[in-house]
């Protein structure tokens, strides 16, 4: 199967480019399924039932998220009703929502997992332990497994990639909003990239108006952030997975403006 | 002028590949000057007078560093004697060493600045204020100015890039040890990249043995780190600067194994 | 002179107890001037022109603050007009508001300084350097100088106390909302205490409803905080300063419910 | 039963005062058992088999620790052999050592638990979940349960206290090395104090030479720390627990120089 995984979609400009381009990309790139990280899809901070459904309406198969998942309160009562919207698996027991989903395309089952790192982030449960537990269940159903590891520190992301090698089809990093140039197939067949970047205005600081972020750094006074609008780019990777083995055949950065 | 800027050199394997390749690269790429980040050149943590001189002996023009600058105590009494070795400019007043240097090639003066970010790092003095002050001095001598901004958070690095746009020739990020794919010339002529990656063993976690880092993440018990040795890659960028204007003409990722 | 310094006033319950008790305390304890930390006076997060004026209306002489100073946006355009309201001195140049004030009681001049720590907090300018600069100016006017050092880490607070010893009349810590039992006169005459605690509902977690904070720790989902209302206690210290030398004669914890 | 719980013992001066005074205190205060936090007992950083055995040799019943537990490598192969030495319970599965112990005095069983917070600290497993699991086991044996919660943030410590109220005999905080003045019996019978302080040289910054810590704050250059030697004080609390109910009758700060 061929997957397109799209980096953090930032507000309306991000949703717009996804909506406009996704059908053509699916066709031209021969994509079987699309995953997007949607944690910034609502005004740059958080995700709502509406932005979730707008993205799913574009034909997105699964939406992953990260630390911004709860920024918009409306998502809390909604999340359990929408199985295609994930939050990091390693939230503590009892938290609404799911961290994984198994879907089916033409008789082939495939799964998506969403986990969060902890270095410079909230102290969630251990993502390594959480992965081990979840794979025990998922591996019974399929070995086509895609992981969005939402994390800050390169050390934690790369370590997590090695930890997954040979156990899942791919690990793609999100959260920094900057694409890295280290995509590769690890020795045991897991495709890996430290970060797939963001989908939104690149004439900005990680999708937000430059002036606002600069003001924050220069004064240390909190600022209301607004989503930037210029130079919209869609960023992601295309991962081709062998249906039989679940191992990756290729991983390619994909970018479009 | 054409500059080669090389990302964090990790221990002996990193120094070795620099030593072996640098002359050929200078020639084939028509490089006028070479800058390397050396904060991990001594056993992966810190830099010593010996590794400094080994790197300079290879024909490196300037060595920049970052948060690991003081890991090896021997560097403290030495640093003031070696003007080609920089530590971040925004250490408080009174700290040994320099954060900038002006050199001359064939009558053309050019400068290097080294600054550190503060997000998820030590609370140094403000890098934005420190830059402003230093540029007042340096701009009187030359407008060919290369900045190594050693920082963790992509927001701080990108914001710093925009802040510098039109005032320096380039801002290259270091510290994460992972190359990003966002190299560009900003609208007012400053070349920018979020991180230029590392020079060392890439079969590793940011240059360190994978097993050790994984053990740390799985147990939270501190581990003695050793430098990894397999899959040595040199990473950096080549920046071409217009001698008259000090603006950048091009920035290109450069990688060699 | 005898000073009463009151710890972080939390919302309406905190303002209420100050309003009700302050006159009687001034009289019974023979207090010459009162300082309160007001960073949580507006709904537990931030301070407004209204809560500032309510506190000043109770006869408070100076209001200090800390990291929550900007939580309520209305304070930004107001702060420059109210010299008795301080924000940490070590915000970068250009930030509205002042970090120190000199007042006069019966011909005696006395000063208050407000600084913030940086460990586990925002990277403001160095509080040690900021203190040095400010004392050069203030020492020309008076040697009765009271410092509110708003900080998290005990190491930074105690180190700051020693750094100030003999140079100011007292250093009282704020921010943790828990009174410490280490009040003392340092060898060169500076009164010191790591934290003077808070003024608000103590049947709570640092002034906020226990259920809300617990929910946050158990789920890692952000929660809207509301100010707790039971078991209201006013906490602070009384510091007696020798008018001639500016050295402290005594420091005593003061608590009242 | 009457328990003496002693705050972080700092290096040789800390061990010395414990050794000299403990017998007399036990007698005069009618103490049934003594617990000390030993994470700084070896040179200020960590604990060794030798300092463990020295402390136990003084008649200490249980040694708790915290984030510095692994600073001295020798403790790793030793810790499983010494059941009276605890490390925080919420280290991940598979980590050497134990986080709780059950002992017997004159037919009465009693237990000690050691947990660590996570705010501004390493991302261990959730201390709230870890407590719940452990209490299920321990409650079958005894309801006299003493908890050392080693944590930085007052919010996390106080929240943990409330979470434990009525389920354990007492929660005492450690780690900040500064005694707080908020000891109390919570409504359902759990004794609580945010921090019991340290046992060592108080003419210092949290037990370390002031000059060294100040140099660190002023220059941001790491410094080798040495244990301070002047003004040695032993700090702790005495908690009286009802043998039948496991509820606390009293908690009193205890200090001796
Ligand atoms: Fe994001
Ligand atoms: Fe994120
Ligand atoms: Fe580095
Ligand atoms: Fe670094
Ligand atoms: Fe506060
Ligand atoms: Fe505060
Ligand atoms: Fe300690
Ligand atoms: Fe500790």
UniProtKB/TrEMBL annotation, chains A, B, C, D:
Question: In which residues is Fe cation 2 bound?
Answer: 39, 67, 150, 175
Q: What CDD domains does the entry give?
A: MPP_DR1281
User: Where are the catalytic residues?
Assistant: 68 (proton donor)
**GO MF term (any one):** metal ion binding
Q: Which InterPro entries match?
A: Metallo-depent_PP-like (IPR029052), YmdB-like (IPR005235)
As for family, the record states:
Belongs to the YmdB-like family.
Per its record, how is this protein called by name? TIGR00282 family metallophosphoesterase
Q: Which organism is it from?
A: Atribacter laminatus
């Amino acid at each position: 199967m061929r997957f397109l995984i799209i980096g953090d979609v930032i507000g309306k400009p991000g949703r717009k480019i996804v909506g406009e381009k996704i059908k053509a990309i699916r066709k031209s790139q021969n994509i079987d399924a699309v995953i997007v990280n949607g944690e910034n899809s609502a005004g740059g901070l958080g995700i709502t039932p509406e932005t979730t459904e707008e993205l799913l309406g574009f034909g997105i198969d699964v939406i992953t998220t990260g630390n911004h998942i709860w920024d918009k309160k409306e998502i809390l009562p909604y999340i359990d009703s929408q199985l295609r919207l994930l939050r990091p698996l390693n939230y503590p027991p009892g938290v609404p929502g799911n961290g994984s989903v198994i879907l089916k395309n033409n008789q082939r089952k495939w799964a998506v997992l969403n986990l969060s790192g902890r270095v410079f982030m909230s102290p969630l449960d251990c993502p390594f332990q959480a992965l081990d537990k979840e794979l025990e269940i998922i591996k019974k159903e399929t070995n086509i497994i895609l992981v969005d590891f939402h994390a800050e520190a390169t050390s934690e992301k790369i370590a997590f990639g090695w930890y997954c090698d040979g156990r899942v089809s791919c690990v793609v990093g999100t959260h920094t909003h900057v694409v890295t140039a280290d995509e590769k197939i690890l020795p045991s067949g897991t495709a890996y990239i430290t970060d797939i970047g963001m989908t939104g205005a690149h004439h900005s600081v990680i999708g937000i108006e430059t002036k606002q972020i600069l003001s924050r750094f220069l004064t240390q006074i909190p600022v209301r952030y607004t989503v930037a609008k210029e130079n919209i780019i869609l960023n992601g990777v295309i991962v081709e997975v062998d249906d039989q083995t679940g191992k990756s055949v290729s991983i390619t950065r994909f970018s479009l403006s």
